[in-house]
Amino acid sequence: MALCSVRKARECWSFIRALHKGPAATPAPQKDSVERVFSGIQPTGIPHLGNYLGAIESWVKLQEEYDTVLYSIVDLHSITVPQDPTILQQSILDMTAVLLACGINPEKSILFQQSQVSEHTQLSWILTCMVRLPRLQHLHQWKAKAARQKHDGTVGLLTYPVLQAADILCYKSTHVPVGEDQVQHMELVQDLARSFNQKYGELFPLPKSILTSMKKVKSLRDPSAKMSKSDPDKLATVGITDSPEEIVLKFRKAVTDFTSEVTYEPDSRAGVSNMVAIHAAVSGLSVEEVVRSSTGLDTARYKLLVADAVIEKFAPIRREIERLKMDKDHLKKVLLVGSAKAKELAYPVLEEVKKLVGVL
Q1: Nearest Cα to 99, choosing from 334, 341, 339, 346?
Q2: 31-85 per-position pLDDT tens digit
């Protein structure tokens, strides 16, 4: 059994080297002037409408704006909570299919699996030894998750922001697209980069946050909360792969208010304003244009109009996801090639780090 695993591993790395011909020695050093984008997504569940509008859609655009763009399926982050191994393996491939179907192009960006690039965890340990415990305990996401899990919160859950920092710094990333809830973690990344540079010499650029223009998509059932995969109310969240019938049902049941007119007033009419924001985002129109075109519609009819717009947006993506999921070998090859490309960038950075720290 063990010999079989070793043999498979050797075959895998032989394949990677064949794809990237050239000396197996240290790759050429990176140019520090390069602008480099990095972001990651956990392979836990199919992305929803909020994930698409808040992150994935902007990822697609960034491929055209930067020379080097890396998108990682961060499977190591996902195991900070218990996962079924079989389901996790399938989820990694499903997420690959989703990202490809949404427009992530392996010819324009590097799409890879985090755990296949060992430099992430090696750099994470070095950075972990530089951060003090209270710094991590004060992060709001740790407080929230630890409160929910009571005494079951793991060390991995506490330290995953450091691994997140390593994900970013491993490539000397200069820009990171993030949501509003990740701003505090980006501050940690910048602090760790700054501390390393001060202690060992200038190495890491201080990565800048790219905040997406689309605000958080709200729950369809509770417009005071953001849309979430973990919401127990199945009507609250619209998945990218939901059927047209499911999407219509969810929007029909969406919470609005007792005023029938369609207006955009987030503070006083959160539910209707969420509908307008979603409609504007999937149609490419401005909020003002959406409101103007909806004059005379009551909210019940308007919700169905928004549902139709979402269905139209997701229809080709849904078809492409189903097609890609039928070809697992292709999905595995995309991740294998992407991980090899990522490793070529991460390896020389880690070698510089180890030399400066003194462990080379």
Answers
A1: 334
A2: 456 899 999 999 988 899 999 998 999 999 999 999 899 999 999 999 998 999 9
Token pair recorded at residue 134 = 């209270």
Spatial separation of the C-alpha atoms in residues 170 and 164, rounded to whole Å? 10
Instruction: Please say if the pLDDT value at position 22 is more than 60.
Output: no
| Cα separation, 260 vs 266, whole angstroms | 16
Read off the tokens for 197.
Answer: 């540079």
271/262 Cα distance (integer angstroms)? 10
pLDDT tens-place string over residues 268-296: 999 999 999 999 999 999 999 999 999 99
In one letter, which amino acid is 190?
Q
Nearest to 113 by CA among 233, 229, 12: 12
d(CA 59, CA 44): 18
Active site residue 253: no
Catalytic residue among 216, 218, 226, 250: 226
Q: State the catalytic residue, choosing from 108, 215, 229, 332.
A: 229
User: Minimal CA–CA distance to 274: which of 236, 320, 328?
Assistant: 236
Residue found under tokens 């999921």: 325
Backbone angles phi, psi at 48, to 5 degrees: -105, 180
Q: How far is CA 171 from the centre of its chain?
A: 17
pTM of the predicted protein model:
0.86
Q: Is 226 a catalytic residue?
A: yes
Q: Report CA-CA distances (Å) from 140 to 12, 144, 199, 230, 295.
A: 40, 6, 27, 18, 42
- Amino acid identity of residue 185, one-letter, is H
